[in-house]
Write a structure and sequence with these properties.
This protein is mainly alpha-helical. The protein has one domain. Helices cover about 80% and strands about 0% of the residues. The protein is built from seven helices and no strands. It has helices spanning about 5-50, 50-70, 75-110, 120-140, 140-150, 155-165, 170-190. The longest helix is centred in the N-terminal third of the chain and has 44 residues, at about 5-50. The N and C termini lie far apart (about 90 Å). The model is unreliable at about 115 (pLDDT under 50).
Length: about 190
């Protein structure tokens, strides 16, 4: 005996099961991508921000953005994540600078007593140099800043080239131009 509508119910159940299985497969693929690329994405962001916690926040944002926009099996996934990490970290750096300017008066008033530092002059010089480098990174081109961040985060020339859609042989020249631009910006910044 046939039940009316039973075939339609079975088809709906089968479609639901297929989409659930597809979703599970995609979840596993994204999880594998996450485990494979997370450390590199964090390293890139940390090189720009010099802050491990902020770098992890940037990495999470980058992975969430990728998950919303792209399939985890995309052949460009690693490249997209690396470039997005560099850009998101640079954006965070710019945001920090704007926030610092807005909150400078409050920060000075609320600053706690400085902790014991073995060599205060060296600590101040290091902090000033880091601030100058961060500021200079925001003033050079995004491509140059991204290349420097990725290379100094430990990516090979081939990985930097893949992330920036360049031949690995071109990465050295790009990095050299980026270093020169950074050096020039640092020199110009010291005369301001």
């Amino acid at each position: 005996m046939k039940y009316p509508g039973a075939e339609a119910d079975l088809a709906a159940i089968a479609l639901g099961l297929d989409s659930a299985l597809a979703g599970e497969s995609e979840s596993r693929a994204f999880e594998a991508l996450f485990h494979r690329e997370y450390r590199t994405v964090v390293a890139i962001a940390r090189r720009v921000l010099f802050d491990a916690h902020a770098a992890e926040d940037v990495a999470q944002d980058v992975f969430v953005s990728f998950h919303r926009l792209h399939p985890p099996q995309a052949p460009y996934a690693a490249r997209w994540l690396h470039v997005a990490a560099a850009h998101a970290a640079l954006n965070e750096l710019r945001s920090r600078k704007r926030r610092q300017r807005r909150e400078m008066a409050d920060a000075i008033a609320a600053a706690p007593a400085a902790a014991h530092v073995p060599d205060p002059a060296a600590a101040i010089a290091d902090a000033e140099l880091r601030d100058r480098v961060r500021f200079a990174l925001t003033r050079i081109g995004k491509r140059h800043a991204a290349a420097l961040a990725m290379r100094h985060a430990g990516l090979s020339y081939a990985e930097v080239g893949a992330a920036l859609a360049l031949n690995a042989n071109q990465v050295g020249a790009l990095l050299r131009r980026a270093e020169l631009a950074l050096k020039k910006e640092l020199e110009n910044g010291s005369s301001r």
